[in-house]
Amino acid sequence: MTTIALPSYEDATSRYEPVIGLETHVELGTNTKMFCGCKTDFGAEPNTQVCPVCLALPGALPVMNGAAIEATIRIGLALNCDIAQWCRMARKNYFYPDMPKNFQTSQYDEPLCVDGYVDVTVDGVEYRVEIERVHIEEDTGKTLHVGGATGRIHGATESLVDYNRAGIPLVEIVTKPVPGLGDKAPEIAKAYVAELRDIIRSLDVSDVRMEQGSMRCDVNTSLNKPGEEWGTRTETKNVNSLRSVERAVRSEIIRQAGLLDVGTRIFQETRHFQETTGDTRPGRSKETATDYRYFPEPDLVPIAPDTAWVAKLKSELPEKPSVKRARLREDWGISEIDMQSAANAGAIELIEETIAAGASPAGARKWWLGELARRSNELGVELVEVGATPVQVAALQKLVDDGKLNDKLARQVLEGVVAGEGDPAAVMTARGLEVVSDTGALQKAVDEAIAANPDIAAKIRDGKVAAAGALVGAVMKTTRGQADAKTVRDLILSRLGAS
Amino acid sequence: MTDLTRLSAAALSKMISSKEVSAVEVATAHLDRIDAVDERVHAFLHVDRQGALDAAAAVDRGEITGPLAGVPIAVKDVVATKGVPTTAASKILEGWKPPYDATIVERLKTAGMPILGKTNMDEFAMGSSTEYSAYGPTKNPWDLGRIPGGSGGGSSAAIAAYEAPLAIGTDTGGSIRQPGAVTGTVGAKPTYGSTSRYGLIAFSSSLDTPGPCGRTVEDTALLHAVMAGHDPRDSTSIPQAVPDVVGAARLGATGDLTGVKLGLVKEFAGDGSEAGVTAAFRESLEALVKLGAEIVEISCPNFQYALPAYYLIAPSEASSNLARFDGVRYGLRTGDDGNRSLEEVMSLTREAGFGPEVKRRIILGTYALSSGYYDAYYGQAQKVRTLITRDFQAAFEQVDVLVSPTTPFVAFPFGSRTSDPYQMYLADLFTIPTNLYGGPAISVPCGLSEGLPVGFQIMAPTMADDRMYRVAAALESAVGTFTPPAL
């Protein structure tokens, strides 16, 4: 295989127009599975949350979980969809070992919700992403390949299947193709998924944790030259974080541009996003298109939601995240762009909770959008899993406000907190990072600094107050940064009669 | 002493509740009868002697009372019984013991009915002769060289051979009624959704209907009343009270059908039926007229499309329902030698585990659902189904029930229809329309043709199962019951 020279992203988007589309799966947080009474707890021992129905034992039958239907309708309503007055489940037939029935109970040409939209704002510009459909289906189990070096089926000595996840209700949200985004496509894709996540979280129907797989994204990308027809799309799976959504679109744009540049045709295929390298690799070949032989599920009666009930669900929807953001922006006194960057970083709830735990809006934002955002980028993880909780951040800020930590020390304490060393106060004590507030000790350090730097001291006495900086630095050095710089400066100036 | 196996379920029930005989004695008599004759009949795939005796003993201890408490029963092997092998007469489920009971089995247990064992059938209920059982066919007690009907040939033969007074069957296209007809016993297909499918190994989900088999109409009604009723575990179960089928059967037994209108389906008349079948059917009609019934000729123009529509819908659903048999979680697994891929093992398992008729229908159904063919086959068949339903609805505006022979021919010799699937499918010509409609129908013995039983079918509107019991009991009172020659 020849290696194709890849263009830069800027070059690619200057010559090609991307069209993107997103299919997002959201695992609903219902107490029980979609068709049986089994629990849905994450992380339980394998095959402990199973029964004849979700194991597809011969003779077992599904019964629809009403809570799953309600949650799906609420998602549809929150995404401005029309709700079907009558629709059916359908069987999607294909063989796979972690799918107990060897068909997935899903929806086909009669989705529960259709024709909605989500508005997202990137760099102060609003974009509308249209929703084609929102439908409900069941999740599959998980296959684990044991004995191979890579955890893949090749070379494995055993394949184990855990059916705990089989039958957990999933909602699939499919956008219409979104053209005309130009070089903003990756950011808009990310902003859309973030907005979707915030909307669903506000409904309290799922914990929408991408890292735990309760929200999963497939990203469709195609490129065309300006004025030409849309190109062939590829579908990228395994996109498991907001950041990956953006990276996946970006890398697929670059890859496809590279192929198109040398006249290679794009194949419609499924690709897998590589978290480590940030590019996509070919997945299951679709040379022979799978025929899923969809047909209406005869084991389940049609879904016919009562119109009045749907209207009631609509009237009871919570405040929209975009409205809430406008309100919080007011409360926090920040710009739309700052708010958007907080939203895109997935920081709004974290900041809100930090404020609720006692921090000032500015203090809360500073940590989440500053030090912690930097760390989450470095580690390539979501902000929420960076290792600090809102309560800890609020406690950290309080230590600063109380003068027990200065900014530099606080960063070191935070480092300890995210490293799992405990709460801020405990880390401060354990690492001995508290600001030296004992003036006797500080005075001694100041006197030593003056004695060691007679030339500088003389300048200050002569009124060159700016020279004090060098002495402050010396004191900070001997106190290993654990002094408040302003206090040190005041002590120096007063000792030298220059205050 | 009375031979307990010759008594009706109603009579046994009375004797047990009055302590004239113990439930254990009744169960033992039937188990002994099975020991004596089943080697020749092969109605059972598994006999649960201990389970039956334990259940009978519980009744004798007074733990359970009720209309059929202590009356033993045989259950078709397509219905899940906890801890008791359930194979659907397929190699792919050989030795599988369900960890749960079907809802209808729970109801039998709650009613105190000892389960004697599991009866033979065509594999996954696909067939009309039991010749497609992976464990060898059941013989018709009337002539051991002939088929007992199918798919539920085991259940009907077991009661015809006095191995059980009652049995559970399942009817997807006639699998209760046609075996009933050719063994001289009664078999009822209740309204779809009035008997729970939970625990019934699915063949065709939109058609499968568990139902009762008995030697008399009253016995069949008694079992119907025990097994029917809403089940929250079956989404298609109807949340309505079951009609009073026992009362209707007793009313019919008085022999008065004054004012009852019987619809004679014009399209069925003489169409492919054997002369002896037509003759017995005509005589029965005359008997019913004597009881006061009125005969009205009814046209159901779409019934002629029922068979082809059925052979698209049922295999389509089957192709999906049977996908779960892949060797991964239960049942047979073939070729898992550590070198083969999962797909290969699944494929080898299904190749080895399924018999020819099951494979034929899976292939048919897979084809009918394929992209590009769906509208022409499955979609079109669903439209036919709607038209057939309208035929029924229009007919029931004019008459109370529809009547026909149950099946065009009496029990045929083994091997005579296996080489041409279509000849086998014709056995269900008269029974299939009801399944597509979803209404109830019953087959009741009405006479003999060349010494072999002929069945009379009565079809009623959905949730009017009581109507067919009334007419069936009236016919039974006129023509009597039929006893096979001694085995």
Characterise the protein shown here:
The complex is a heterodimer of chains A (499) and B (487). Helix content of chain A is 39%, strand content 17%. With 499 residues, chain A is α+β, with helices and mostly antiparallel strands. Chain A has three domains: 9-309, no CATH class; 348-431, no CATH class; 439-495, Orthogonal Bundle (Arc Repressor Mutant, subunit A). In chain A, the strands form three sheets. A nine-stranded mixed sheet of chain A has the order 2-5-6-9-1-10-11-12-13. Chain A has a three-stranded antiparallel sheet with strand order 4-3-14, with no helix packed on it. In chain A, strand 11, helix 4 (242-261) and strand 12 (270-273) form a beta-alpha-beta unit. Chain A is elongated. The model of chain A has no long low-confidence stretch (mean pLDDT 90). In chain B, helix 9 (275-290) links the parallel strand 7 and strand 8 (294-298). Chain B has a domain at 6-254: Amidase signature (AS) domain (Amidase signature (AS) enzymes, Alpha-Beta Complex). Chain B has 487 residues and is an alpha/beta fold. The A-B interface holds A 52, 55-64, 91, 93, 95, 97, 100-103, 153, 157, 159, 161, 291, 293-295, 298-301 and B 79-80, 86, 88, 93, 96, 98-100, 102, 197-202, 204-206, 232-236, 316-317, 319-320, 323-326, 328-330, 338, 342-343, 346, 366, 369-371, 374, 378. Chain B: This is Glutamyl-tRNA(Gln) amidotransferase subunit A. Chain B: Residues 25-467 form the Amidase domain.
- Strand proportion of chain B, as a percent range, falls in 5-15%
Give the fraction of residues assigned to helices of chain B. Answer: 25-40%
- Placed side by side, the strands forming the largest sheet of chain A appear as 2-5-6-9-1-10-11-12-13
**N-to-C series of helices and strands of chain B:** HHEHEHEHEHEEHHEHEHHHHEHHEEH
Count every helix of chain B, treating DSSP H or I runs of 4 or more residues as helices. 16
The appropriate CATH architecture of the domain at 6-254 in chain B is Alpha-Beta Complex
Task: Sketch the topology of chain A as an H/E string, one letter per element.
Answer: HEHEEEEEEEEHEEHEEEHHHHHHHHHHHH
Measured by DSSP, the beta-strand proportion of chain A falls in 15-25%
